[in-house]
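I'm stuck. Protein, please.
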Amino acid sequence: MKTESNILDSVARVVGAMTGLVVKDTDWRPSRSNEPQYDGAVELQFGKQKLRQPYVAKRSLNATTIHLLSILQKQSPNGLLLVTTYVNDRQSDALRQAGVYYMDTAGNVFLAASGLHLLVSGRRLPKKGVEQSDRSKAFHSAGLRLLFSLLTDPHLDDETPGKALVSRPYREISAVTGLSHSTVGWVMADLSRQGMVLETEGRSRMLVDRARILERWVQGYLDRLRPRLVQGRFRPERNDWWQDVHLKAGLWSGEVAAASLTGMLKPGSVTIFGDTPAHSFILKHHLQKDPQGSVEFLNPFWGAAQPAAVEKKTCVHPLLVYADLLAVEDDRTHEIAQGIYEKYLRSLIETA
């Protein structure tokens, strides 16, 4: 893609001038269909040392992207190189800890392959070089809502014509998602333009490039959609108060849902999707209004079809649990998020 090529060219020019490292793009592509999807591979040469490295190009970087890159790196037998616009100090630490090599257009580099070790950090990028936020219609509020319904559709990979939501007429998608017919139309058109929805024989459609969709959906959800959903935050008297709660019109997400799905986490925060909590509920469970509280209530954003977790009908879909876990700045919570991905999402995302 042109964007990836532009980033790689810029990185190669800057890093080469600074370090003497020669970076050459190659025609390599994965030989087996089940290998992770890279943007390509580069040949790196420093003195007499040479290394061929698969790479992924990203215009911007955040905690979600780094987490997904760490998963991809573990699946790659040849390691993974990130080429991007800019890696700040905190991101550098996270990438190095995950074993992901990187180079950016400011000249920051981390390589730790056999016989080829380079580390340059702390270089700053002029403000004019920072990428602007995602302008794609598919990854703003309405598009994020639609994509959530498409990704959590239990018939997503059903080959029966018209069975998957993505293949249905726009009016039916509109009815399921609660979005207008015109909104469905322009979001689907944007997804097609980006190569994420493909037309197949019989005018059917497929949702493809799902790893890229997941990354951008999670980022968009955390940055744009989620902040608008928060009804309020509260402070509990005790951290385990939620164990006495039986939700009648709500679903658990975040750490409580993760604890229910995995049994491997002691929740430090509580996330509930549902109606505004009744005054009697707040009094019964001794919740105090607090903008910094660990208990948050959010408005559901999906349509008529409520995507509950496969095993736990009291929890939201694992995709939303995964995203809400990444909103918590805690390494242990992010480890659990990776476990959620492996158990519930990997087969869904890596199918196409």
Observations:
- The two ends are 18 Å apart (CA to CA).
